Amino acid sequence: MKVISPHIHGYFDSLIAVIFLLAPTFLVLGQLSVILAYGFAIVHLTVTLVSEFSFGGSQTDFIYCL
């Protein structure tokens, strides 16, 4: 059952990463919360970009870059 296309899903994933990056700027968060927000943003964006979604790159491209 597809509710949204993989391409739209990639945009939502990127939006979530941006929200995690901007949250410490607009919210009053403690030091641990800020570290976690930035960490989640980096991990989420990395997984989005190396996944097989049409929005991201492919896993083989990422492996060849290493």
Give an account of the 3D structure.
- The chain has helices at 6-26, 31-50, 59-65.
- With 66 residues, it is mainly alpha-helical.
- Helix 1 packs antiparallel against helix 2.
- The chain is elongated.
SSE topology:
Layout: H1 6-26, H2 31-50, H3 59-65
Helix pairs in contact: 1-2
Bin the helical content. Answer: over 70%
Distance between the termini: 35 Å
User: Which radius of gyration do the C-alpha atoms yield?
Assistant: 14 Å
SSE order in H/E notation?
HHH
Q: What characteristic shape results from the CA principal axes?
A: elongated
Keywords summarizing the entry:
mainly alpha; 66 residues; disordered C terminus
State the gist of this model.
The chain is mainly alpha-helical. The chain is 73% helix and 0% strand. The chain has helices spanning 6-26, 31-50, 59-65.
